[in-house]
């Protein structure tokens, strides 16, 4: 097996409170399932390094990046000002109504973005390599100039453009199967003909975008509430011929698992086998087009058991089909 898992040391320290759904427990749940499935023993593992601040401009307005660092400093300053009698565990500087920064959040976000670039470097250093970034916060709602939906930096776009710039690639593809439309990703890459974006999501639903598409390099699959895996599989079939015609030199995946039937945040009915199936189909295309090279980054998924099981199925699907069974 050639799958390498990248983790950020601060991913489990970014904590916006016990009632926030995007919690450190998500990473613990993934690790528990990797251990119980045996995948932890056969995958490779690496710590992510924080991304260089200059690389954030691959996806973001420099003024927005500056504002994130300023908000992070505000959270740190407020935290140092507290006394031992404070009732609050940490001070939070909110970037929007549900995306905030506490004292560990900026480092976690820089590691989350850095993981994608680390994964690109590792995958491009050989053939038949796949990487999964088990990091948080997620990224696909972050727009060019704003945070949104738990996302600080758009990790997948940064990684994709890092690959285009650093390795002089001509074409890459991003596949996003999170239940929520990756509005930030679409906004940033719309019209960038080096990038094909294939996106499925519940619609109409948060963030109330994605249909109709905004540019010719984007293929959207809006799904009605209650759609099952059979519907999902039928609706995304056209992606595969489009990807083969596009011939990406590297495949990226925004891997959100909140379309699972057990997830409380949405209303689609996918199960683990659907995540295995889409991951395996994308692996077939990667074998045909780009020497098996794939980089997957964690997005959503909020039922902890379903999330962990789905990640296991996803990694198995990305692995060579003859070497791992679902």
Supply the key terms.
His_deacetylse_dom; single chain; disordered C terminus; HDACs; alpha/beta; eight-stranded parallel beta sheet; His_deacetylse_dom_sf; 10 helices; 326 residues; Deacetylase
Helix content: 25-40%
Ranges where pLDDT stays below 50 over 5 or more residues in a row are 83-88, 322-326
What structural class is derived from the secondary structure elements?
alpha/beta
- Biggest sheet statistics: 8 strands, parallel
SSE topology string? EHHEHEEHEHEHEEHHEHEH
In which order are the strands of the major sheet placed?
A: 2-1-5-10-9-6-7-8
Number of E strands = 10
Note the gap between the termini. 14 Å
Strand content: 15-25%
Average pLDDT confidence is 94
Label the overall shape: globular
Rg calculated over all Cα atoms: 18 Å
Family: Belongs to the histone deacetylase family.
Organism: Alteromonas gracilis
Protein name: Deacetylase
InterPro entries: HDACs (IPR000286), His_deacetylse_dom (IPR023801), His_deacetylse_dom_sf (IPR037138), Ureohydrolase_dom_sf (IPR023696)
């Amino acid at each position: 097996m050639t799958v390498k898992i990248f983790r950020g040391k601060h991913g489990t320290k970014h904590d916006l409170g016990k009632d926030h759904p995007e919690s450190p427990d998500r990473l613990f749940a993934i690790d528990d399932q990797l251990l119980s499935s045996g995948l932890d023993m056969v995958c490779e593992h690496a710590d992510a390094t924080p991304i260089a601040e200059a690389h954030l401009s691959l996806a973001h307005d420099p003024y927005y990046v500056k504002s994130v660092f300023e908000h992070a400093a505000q959270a740190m300053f407020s935290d140092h000002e507290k006394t031992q009698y404070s009732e609050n565990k940490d001070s939070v500087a909110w970037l929007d109504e549900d995306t905030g920064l506490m004292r560990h959040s900026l480092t976690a976000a820089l590691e989350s973005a850095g993981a994608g670039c680390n994964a690109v470097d590792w995958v491009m250093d050989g053939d038949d390599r796949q990487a999964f970034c088990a990091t948080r916060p997620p990224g696909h709602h972050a727009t060019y100039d704003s945070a949104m939906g738990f996302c600080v930096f758009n990790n997948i776009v940064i990684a994709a453009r890092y690959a285009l710039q650093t390795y002089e690639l001509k074409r890459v593809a991003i596949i996003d199967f999170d239940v929520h439309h990756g509005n930030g990703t679409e906004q940033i890459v719309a019209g960038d003909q080096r990038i094909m974006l294939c996106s499925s999501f519940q619609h109409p639903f948060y963030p109330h975008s994605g249909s109709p598409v905004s540019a010719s390099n984007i293929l959207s699959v809006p799904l009605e509430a209650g759609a099952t895996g059979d519907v999902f599989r039928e609706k995304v079939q056209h992606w595969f011929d489009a990807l083969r015609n596009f011939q990406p030199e590297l495949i990226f995946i925004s891997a959100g698992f909140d379309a699972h039937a057990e997830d409380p945040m949405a209303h689609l009915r996918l199960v683990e086998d659907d995540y295995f199936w889409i991951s395996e189909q994308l692996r077939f295309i990667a074998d045909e087009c780009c020497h098996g090279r794939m980089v997957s980054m964690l997005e959503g998924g909020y039922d902890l058991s379903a999330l962990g099981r789905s990640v296991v199925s996803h990694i198995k699907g990305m692995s060579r089909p003859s070497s791992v069974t679902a």
